[in-house]
Write a structure and sequence with these properties.
The structure is a homodimer of 566-residue chains. With 566 residues, chain A is α/β, with parallel strands linked by helices. Chain A is built from 18 helices and 32 strands. In chain A, the strands form 9 sheets. Chain A has a 5-stranded parallel sheet with strand order 3-2-1-7-20. In chain A, strands 9-16-10-11-12 form a 5-stranded parallel sheet. In chain A, strands 23-24-27-26-25 form a 5-stranded antiparallel sheet, sandwiched between helices. In chain A, helix 2 packs parallel to helix 9 and helix 7 crosses helix 18. The longest helix of chain A is centred in the first third of the chain and has 17 residues. The N terminus of chain A is likely disordered. At the A-B interface, helix 2, helix 4, helix 9, strand 23 and strand 24 of A face helix 2, helix 4, helix 9, strand 23 and strand 24 of B. Chains A, B: Keywords: FAD, Flavoprotein, Oxidoreductase, Redox-active center.
Chain lengths: 566, 566
């Protein structure tokens, strides 16, 4: 035992005490009772509930104390960790294996045998004139959240009730809802074409509608140009001249790795993010890094990008402790799949793996499937459709990514698909999954099974799809055949389509033949189930046919309600 | 095209029109517009919501029409299927490739090119005296459910309000709750040692408590011996002499394959269940079988058993249609993993893969993990613990089975684990899953990730476990060390234990040393997290130590509340 002990690091220094850093510290202690473990945290708190901050702002989490999962005292008692808050690491010297720490009592040198860099990221501050206004907040720390809620509660008395949220990413959307829940008027401004930019347009559309239902005014595809400061409010000026008056401006325009001190010390970085190997090692000996500050290799596309997610950060911190203390047996850290989720009002939106943009950037040929299954058996009360988008690799059907939005069951399906992506499953494998079925929880053919069935049908040519994005071209080139019921058709349909309910199609193929006049037939229905049946009938009857992926539900999300004829 | 067409079966005959049969029929039509597809169903309904029957009885599903997902007319219109209800196949002649069908207009011979046997199963009727009473019902068909609800509604007027449910499997438990929801007094009688026999005892215990909370009186480990018939009620007599008066007796003692006519015709069976190959083929040419009537090979244990689940039945029916019409490209049918779920009051209980009994029967060496994680972040309102049991293969950690019970999030974790089992993942792989995290839905370390971490700790010796089942032996042989807080200890603890809170353990190791007096130390806490930390400290301090798997939560479920000292 003593021989092995002699090789172990005696002092492990960890920079940053939240997700990755604290996971590394706790795991290190469990593996080695005798190491000295020092955690240096710039802020006032360690191991706090970062992802809970918007819910504290919104009042759903009532007490600030709930956000503080651990304190230096509890960590000392349970794990004998030396946790020092208000300690900022301002320099690193790899030659002497030491860091310079600036604390309340001044600077000191601290030597390390192993060093873990988990400094996290800071809010991006775009170069907008006026953004230094005291009415501008960010939401990264407990202090940020506490100050913001204090301002809201003060504002409630002073009738200062208008908020502008700049950036409609996950935190921006959560914060906008939190502010709205507190009764403020909320404007949400996003530079990208739609809210929650990582989502596909057809998944983001229901989210945007839900934000409107909550009373949040969203504007996408537009830049903020400046913030004007007035005595009793600020004004956010947008690129189109719109002026939004605000008592509170929440800046949520993304984050950047907080790595300047380490890059200056020779830690290899790319675009400010620390480069690490499969064990979390940087280019410097015995210096590791994890969390929002590192560059990850995407598990699906192989592209390098920062992944600011708590799950991968915790996992990497823990895995780094394994490698520091058990270098021979530590498993490589997995490349992140990038699974994320957000509640918006009564909806859940979630994604895993790559989206269309990432697949396109990576040059991966993809088939995309759109489904609208219910979260549980349709005959059981409360059944509600979700929108599910699944990307599979053309040819072999390898699962590449998935997104969903709906009222219930979205988190479950995305987690199953995230597991399937990690396991390297294909569309065919999804058919074979034995998922838990009772009418309360699912269907005998679960949405994930259905996605596999549609995928294999596409891969082997049983099903040919067309996409709502191609509507403008196809309405000119093809006969668009709507096979829904007369009642559904009457409520709203794409203009210029032939309407034959799928139950009558066998007897009315002559009409299709005459209307098509040699053109291809592009069928559609509500969600793609009946048009698949119609496609099979048409293709076996000699037509060049295809079925609209996701049906009218997807078409309305992609094209908007304005396209409909009545 | 005509050459390929010529090889295709012209008439596909399908026996049984519910899950497997109707999936085969619908898929066959989508693949082949020109085949004649005949579905022969003995009962009055096809494609009905079998798993919804208890909810119709309980009134949660209000209308009988909701149970009828399709009718012969809708199937004719949409898919050109020739669906014949009240048609019972009474004989099969493989030599002439024909079946004898008994319909309302008499018997007829029907030739087939391909035959799919999906006759399902019928309720087992144990040889109990008096079980032929008209007050005894089963719950297998829409007619069963309608009659039962009529009797309940009639009973409401006549004050006939007592039900005895014989058999506490999934359907028995669902039916008991449905009857209770209708206001009846319900007694639930199970021969096996606990309700829901496929569940581990520690998962079944919270279910039994929830049944009691619902007002259902459950008796497990006891047989019914007879049913006595009286003028205005029946009496169920149990083996211990208990007499239960009943206006309604629901027999739910399992099912057996409904295969006598086919076995007589030469279809190879084992214990009455049809033997099939990986494409669903029986021993007879062009005769396939699927659903509750076939014997499956368990995906985990390799043991052969009937799997009466809708998901595998639907999947097999569809896969058989693929093999009939596309024999060269049809994929093999997967062996069922056996995932099942049930709602009981406010709880969900679910399982996937093999349980302890099956693993033991198969001779597979297993490590079993018990966890009690919350369904989402503990700091977010509404966090509630679930009980999670995971079986991994000793040595390599291959995931073998999992069960869970709790208020929320059980279905999600079991579906993720079912996917992991199908994919052949190990405990280490579970650590690496990127699951969707926001405090509303999960934790940065999801319950599934945690199970992986505990599993790898056990596999590599970082963690040694002891089990509540070994309490009687270990209390004599070891020092039992309770590391919970003083407040937790005071509420109830195992007798004769040493109590040192984990936060004080480092400073009080001398006390442990003295109390142990050379014996092993067996630590415990609330759920196993703190005793793991204690174990690490103890083992690195030279003690022979282990941590109680699942902590006091599991111990109370296994040993009962009576074992506690206060």
């Amino acid at each position: 035992m003593s021989a092995a002990m002699a090789d172990r690091p005696r002092r492990i220094v960890i920079v940053g005490g939240v997700a990755a850093g604290m996971s590394a510290a706790a795991r290190a202690r469990r593996l080695d009772e005798h190491a000295e473990i020092v955690v240096l945290e710039r802020g006032a708190h360690v191991s706090f509930a970062n992802c809970g901050l918007p819910y504290y702002v919104g009042g759903e989490i009532e007490d600030q104390s709930s956000l503080l999962v651990q304190t230096p005292a509890t960590l000392r008692a349970a794990l004998d960790l030396d946790v020092r808050v208000h300690h900022d690491v301002i320099a690193l010297d790899a030659a002497t294996r030491s860091v310079t720490v600036r604390g309340p009592e001044g600077d000191e040198q601290l030597a390390y045998d192993a060093l873990v860099l988990a400094p996290g990221a800071v809010a991006v501050r775009p170069p907008l004139p006026g953004l230094d206004s005291p009415r501008v907040s960010t939401l990264r720390t407990v202090e940020d959240a506490v100050r913001l809620r204090e301002r809201i509660e003060a504002g409630a008395e002073a009738s200062a009730r208008r908020a502008v949220v700049l950036g409609a990413g996950f935190i921006g959307v959560e914060a906008a809802e939190a502010l709205r829940r507190q009764g403020l008027e909320v404007e949400l401004v996003e530079l990208a074409p739609h809210v929650l930019p990582p989502l596909e347009a057809e998944i983001a559309a229901p989210v945007a509608a839900e934000l409107r239902r909550l009373g949040i005014r969203g504007r996408a595809g537009i830049a903020a140009e400046s913030v004007e400061h007035h005595e009793d409010h600020d004004t956010v000026v947008l690129a189109d001249g719109t002026r939004l008056e605000a008592d509170i401006i929440l800046l949520s325009a993304g984050v950047r790795p907080d790595t300047a001190a380490f890059e200056a010390a020779g830690v290899a970085c790319e675009r400010g993010a620390i480069l690490v190997d499969e064990h979390g090692r940087t280019n410097l000996p015995d210096v590791y890094a994890a969390g929002d500050a590192v560059l990850s290799v995407d598990a699906v596309t192989g592209l390098r990008r920062p992944v600011a997610l708590a799950g991968p950060a915790n996992r990497a911190g823990r895995g780094i402790a394994d490698h520091i203390l058990r270098p021979d047996s530590a498993r490589p850290l997995p490349a992140p799949v990038g699974t994320a989720i957000v509640r918006v009002g009564e909806l859940t939106a979630a994604l895993t793996g790559a989206n269309s943009a990432a697949l396109s950037a990576a040059g991966i040929e993809t088939d995309t499937l759109h489904l609208h299954p219910t979260q549980h058996a349709g005959y059981f009360p409360g059944a509600a459709q979700m929108a599910l988008v699944v990307h599979i690799r053309r040819g072999d059907g390898l699962l590449l990514g998935a997104q969903a939005v709906g009222r219930e069951g979205v988190d479950k399906r995305i987690d199953v698909l995230a597991t399937a992506i990690r396991a390297g499953l294909t569309a065919a494998d999804l058919i074979d999954l034995d998922l838990a079925y009772s009418p309360v929880y699912g269907s005998a053919k679960d949405p994930v099974n259905l996605a596999g069935m549609v995928g294999v049908n596409v891969l082997d040519g049983t099903l040919a799809l067309w996409y709502a994005q191609d509507w403008d071209r196809l309405r000119a080139e093809a006969l668009i055949l709507d096979v829904r019921s007369a009642a559904e058709y009457a409520v709203g349909h794409l203009p210029g389509t032939l309407h034959i309910p799928h139950t009558e199609l066998r007897d009315r193929l002559d009409e299709v033949h005459d209307a098509a006049a040699g053109r291809p037939v592009r069928a559609l229905c509500g969600s793609g189930v009946r048009s698949h049946i119609a496609h099979r009938l048409l293709t076996q009857s000699g037509f060049d046919s295809a079925s609209l992926s996701g049906g009218m539900l997807t078409a309305r999300a992609v094209l908007g309600e304005g396209v409909l004829a009545h």
